Amino acid sequence: MAFAKVHIGLTNWAADIVTGRHSLISDEPAALGGEDAGPSPFQLLLASLGSCTAITLRMYAERKGWPLEAVDIDLHYRAEGEARSITRALTLQGDLDEAQRARLADIAERTPVTLALKGGVAITTTLA
Its domain of life (predicted)? Predict the structure, then answer.
C-alpha cells in the first residue's frame, strides 16, 4: 500500500510531499504563478508511470534472463478539450530479438500504474 502526505502553505504553489522516507516538492512553473521549485503534478504523474514501466520491464527481463541493458521512456501528457492522453515511447537497449521486444512492449501495457490509470481509480474525499 502506498501513501503520501502533502502540505501547502501560503507560498504559490509549492506543495511539500512526504511519502515513506522521502520528501520532495511539487510546484507549478513560473508561467502559472509558481516558482518551478519542483515537478508539476502532471510531471509527477508521468514520472510515476515511467518509473513503474521501467522497473517492471527490468524485473521481467531479469527473471527471463534476457539481455535488456537499459530502458529509456519518453512520456507526454496532453489535454485537448475533454480529451486527455498520455503517449509513452519506449527505447529498449540490449541484444533483444523482435519477440522479446514485442513481449516487453506488451508488458508495458500491463504495469501496475498503467492499469490504474487505464482503469480509473475510485477516489474518496473526506474532511478531517
Answer: Bacteria
